[in-house]
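Issue 218. Parser rejects a valid record. Input:
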Amino acid sequence: MIKKYIILLLVTSPFTTYALNTTDSLPAVTSITPLPKQRIYLEKNGDSFICNEPKTFDFLTHIPGDAVGYAKHSFQKQNLYKVGIVAASSALLIIFDQQLTNEVQRFASRNGISASEDFDPIVRVKIFGKNTNLGKMPRNVNTAFYNLGQGSSVVLMAAGFLVAGKIKNDNRALQTASQLGESFLALGAGTQLMKYATGRENPSAASIPGGRWRPFPRLGDFQNDKTKFDAFPSGHLATFVSAITIISENYPNVKWIKPIGYTISGLLSFAMMNNGVHWAGDYPLGFALGYGFGKFITKKNHIKVVAAL
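Output the parser choked on:
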């Protein structure tokens, strides 16, 4: 019974983190009177907003300013207790990481959930002399959920919104595509820096229970043997949660996005523990980064509508 409770707590821990962040204070938005032909969208609280068409390279040029703005926002006085909660939950999970990982893997084994990554490449090309898979067709359940956290999933989402936005002349869809691209690049770079700074071993390469920490390893070692250094925090989870948050914030009236998206994030977390890529302690910060940055960049691009006098 206790073991089942631990599994349930682990899988649902992202929802606890999400609940703690739902009252985040957000950057102020500009209020304007819309032009006659501008599309007006509804916020979940009933307010109205419009979106301007993003410039072609906004997903790149906005990264420095948004990264600094998000960091400042996160460490404002009213948000410090939430930073403390993320830190405390990470520390608590790290203490029990080896036991949690062992239990997750035993649970998966008892229920026939393979831990191996098994897939058929959809398209394979050679880039700089190295075979690279452009898309993977999973052959087991664990691989299917693990692949959802890969960057290619977010790129495909962004491409879909970009095409739809161009066809329908819909600035909201275009903004969603731009924000997905921005979060993918910003969180990819940010989590890699954090991984380098902490140097935590993956479960699959752990030399001691819970994995050894080797902060700031040699760059060559970090690049050539990632499993020894890149566990903390989870970039997979940060990227996927950010994508779900961006889409749900831009389309607040589509009620199923959050419950389905965050449920999948829990299954993704389970899959990454099962295949030895991540510890439970890698998740609170990864989830908080994805949720917080996704919400920050969407809200700053929602322009509140006020009625004309």
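Fixed in the parser; the record now loads. Residues 146 and 268 are 6 Å apart (CA to CA).
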